[in-house]
Amino acid sequence: MDTAAQVLLIIVSATLAVFLVTLSIALYYLISFLRDVKRISGRADSVASAVESAAHAFERTASPLAILKLVGGIINKVHSGKSKRKE
Fold first, then answer.
1. Which residues contact 14 (CB under 8 A, 6 or more apart)?
2. pTM above the 0.85 mark?
3. Chain-wide mean pLDDT for the chain?
4. String of DSSP letters for 35-74
5. Cα–Cα distances in Å, from 62 out to 13, 36, 58?
6. Cβ–Cβ contacts within 10 Å for residue 4, how many?
């Protein structure tokens, strides 16, 4: 082998080794980042489920609450009307 070919082989091998190490480090950080994203998305999913369940519970109680408030208002008006008549 020629001296030039040996030098070129050493340069290419060193460059490939540097790229391999860089790729390994980048892959490690990418996997770490993706694990964090997975963990955060799991938490967000559980929070969304909790909010959805609370909204559903509020939806179930909102209608009876409105009816109860209406009936309470009617009762208050009837009571206030009776007390005005007595005076």
1. none
2. no
3. 85
4. HHHHHHHHHHHHHHHHHHHHHHHHHHHHHHHHHHHHHHHH
5. 72, 38, 6
6. 8
